[in-house]
Amino acid sequence: MQEFEFYLPTKIYFGEGVIKKAGQEARRFGQRALVVTGKSSAKKTGALQKVEISLKEAGVEMVLFEGVEPNPSLKTAESGAELAKEKRCQVVIGLGGGSPMDAAKAVAVLSTNPAPADQYLGRNRVKEPPLPIIEIPTTAGTGSEVTPYAVLTEIKKEGSRKKILTDHLIFPKVALVDPELTLSLPGSITADTGVDALSHAIEGYIANNSQPISDLLALKAIKLLVHHLPKVMDNPEDIKARSYVLYASLLAGMVIAQTGTILVHGMGYRITSDFGLPHGRANGLLLPWVCEFNLTERYDKFALLAESLGEEVKNLSKEEAAKKAIRGIQRLLRELGMPENLKDRKIKEETIREFAEEIMQDERKLANNPRRATLEDIIKIYKRALRGEIS
Ligand SMILES: [Fe+2]
Known about the structure:
The chain has 15 helices and nine strands. By secondary structure, the protein is an alpha/beta fold.
């Protein structure tokens, strides 16, 4: 059997109302907590007040760092860390979607390691243990509550780039995964973040770094998403379906914490930074085409994937069944209202080439992708996803 390693040092609480444990969990680490959150939604939905009350009851003082922007910059993380140091916070709580949760991780790092933040981008560059991190997701998709990744934006003269800080030291100590917090999410965010979770599960399942335990989690996550995401879109207040979607997102996060992602995520970052598409939607554009590119290397897995996506595969050959996985993915994306390409934007040949050249520098994503991609392969995939061109 395949040799593997599975490391997940995060204590997970899942269930309606578990946000109330914020205080008791924070108290284990100290008396002052920095709460990192976005612009306004945590306030509007009442999630922030719940955290505040819980901290107060446990005798923990709350220091608020709010206003984290989507795709948070290194500067934002540095400012958060300044505040944490000034107020001598002992624990960092990330409350919100992927952006505040990732920012919280970087803030925790910079609270114990000197600025500038860019020196910690990449893999295992953090020197001192960060402040303990507690994550409370309010969207169902990023899985950041159980991963050692923080995606941050580096702003330079030539443009903004999404960069990853990854280090086993930034695994959150605690994840409070509470479906009630996702009840008021608008449809578009539900769909975008849900597709991000789907992408995590599928990428992790076919990645070269996949392994037996993460495979189990990935297939379960995919089945739950296929079944429950459309239900949530039809009835946003269906707490049962919301719970399953959030659970699936958690499982998919556990998957990529072990496997990493492949070309879908690698190629999607520029679509987000240059065209402003939300992260999940950018992944959705690429997912069918990256899967199709990898089909020949993973017939067995794609055949199982097709089944998990609800496709009829009885009496089909392995190859035919595998092809159905692509159809299953496209069907689900369509059902969720994802765009099929960005044809209307008239994206130029040089832009696509530039994106593709950048990916060729990302050896980790290329190596984790089942089939080795050349520059021309990447260009082809981008052309399909962005311009709807089929060569
Ligand atoms: Fe993602």
